[in-house]
Amino acid sequence: MTTEYTGRGDPARSLALLWRTGERASRKGKPDLSVDRIVRAAIEVADTEGLAALSMRKVAERLGVGTMSLYTYVPGKAELIDVMLDTVYGELPLPGGEEEAAADTAGKPDGGWRARLEAIARDHKTLYHRHPWMLQVGSSRPPLGPNVTAVYDHSLRAVDGIGLSDTEMDTVVTLVTGFVNGAVRGAVKAEQVERLTGMTDEQWWWAHAPFLSKVMDPRRYPVAARVGAAAGEAHNAPYNPEHAFEFGLARVLDGVEVFVRSRAGSASPEGGA
């Protein structure tokens, strides 16, 4: 699987592209190009053909122009990927703004922040399924563009004012979004396997079940035999991505809730603060 990384381009050029501070006008007689048109065409290539197919030549073909004409606007593929990622993050709904940050949760502070984090997780899940190539972009050095910044700010607002330090707020947001990334990655791989084999997980499971029952000795593998059979019967498959996401998200939020309560306790007089 192809993996690309953000932050590999020239910093000054990448930031100029991300914030559109240095966009050049089309040359006389050339097609009406722009950074936005090029980026949208690149996203379409990645959406329909996969990240491995993405190249400056492929984007130029989709736009019906010569490859060299793209370099008037985008220095190269590294910078293009930065802007692509920032652009699709702009599709996330970011309601509330300042009012959201100041909103009172009507005596349910835990339910308030938990509901907000859950909504953020589900929005990210939807975005990853819409653009699966995002899961192939390593972004430990994120593109510092307007949309990525806005999403980060919005996510932090979900846990602002609940007793966490700034570093803890950042870590909680990273934990939740990291879980979503991993969970959806598994779901996308399951979808890809189904397309490649032409067989659903349910069909695969029932095709193997008769033979498995003959070779699986429950006396040798008692727990695996019992639990595997129960899970297989429940999901009609060895793995259910949707169940895994729902279960995992709930447990992650449960853990965050325990941590938030512990921080509140340590800050109270009874907790010795």
TrEMBL record:
Domain HTH tetR-type: 32-92
Keyword DNA-binding: yes
Domain of life of the organism encoding this protein: Bacteria
Keywords of this entry: DNA-binding, Transcription, Transcription regulation
DNA-binding region: 55-74
Name of the protein in question: TetR/AcrR family transcriptional regulator
Organism field: Microtetraspora malaysiensis
Lineage: Bacteria, Bacillati, Actinomycetota, Actinomycetes, Streptosporangiales
